[in-house]
Design the sequence.
């Protein structure tokens, strides 16, 4: 018999979906909560895959696949997510759009974008339930040649109820060398704060691997996430 997520499990799931809706790119982005203001280059596509686990009372495992391509000035993406707790599994799908409207040049010291997406519960969805979604304005500032600051402001809408909550956060990214970067962030989504620290290893200029650990909410639920990001030129 199908089982619903409990309230505690649903809170953890909402946080997973908040990460899933964060449009990725070759900087910050990926599975990190705070997104950067960049988009793919013209004619470029990418895919992001990650998997992780949230510990604590609502222990949960989750996986994500996110392909995206840039057409014109817009980056068009699709999020596919699976989240599982003891006795219950959820499958979620939704589109994602992102547009860098300011500072599009690769060497721009300041850039800003608009990012929005929707998420549909493909497992538990019923007629009359509302889709979830997110709208966020990411801003990136190149403080120094090896230091980037990202700031996000926006809103989330919960899957099922459509209830709106504000979101916002900031992240710092420090490139120790062309291969290794350190990323730290503090973000609030679905009325809970998450503190995350991780690293990014650039295997090639277009392939990177992410690893992070995080603590969320007043109970300090911990999570670990491992991800892969790959950008490539699409076939013409």
Sequence:
């Amino acid at each position: 018999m199908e089982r619903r997520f409990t309230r505690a499990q649903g809170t953890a799931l909402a946080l997973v979906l908040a990460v899933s809706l964060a449009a990725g790119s070759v900087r910050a982005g990926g599975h990190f909560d705070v997104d950067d203001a960049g988009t793919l280059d013209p004619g470029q596509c990418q895919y992001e895959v990650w998997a992780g686990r949230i510990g604590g009372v609502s222990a949960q495992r989750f996986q994500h696949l996110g392909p995206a391509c840039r057409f014109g000035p817009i980056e068009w993406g699709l999020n596919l997510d699976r989240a599982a707790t003891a006795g219950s599994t959820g499958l979620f799908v939704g589109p994602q759009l992102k547009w860098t409207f300011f500072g599009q040049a690769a060497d721009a010291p300041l850039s800003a974008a608009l990012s929005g997406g929707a998420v549909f519960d493909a497992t538990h969805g019923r007629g009359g339930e509302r889709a979830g979604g997110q709208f966020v304005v990411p801003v990136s500032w190149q403080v120094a040649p090896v230091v980037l600051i990202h700031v996000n402001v926006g809103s989330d809408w919960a899957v099922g109820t459509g209830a709106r909550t504000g979101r916002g956060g900031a992240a710092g990214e420090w490139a120790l060398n062309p291969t290794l970067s350190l990323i730290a962030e503090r973000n609030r989504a679905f009325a809970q704060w998450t503190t995350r620290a991780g690293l990014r290893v650039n295997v090639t200029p277009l392939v990177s691997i992410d690893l992070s650990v995080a603590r969320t909410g007043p109970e300090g639920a911990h999570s670990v996430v491992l991800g892969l990001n790959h950008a490539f030129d699409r076939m013409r």
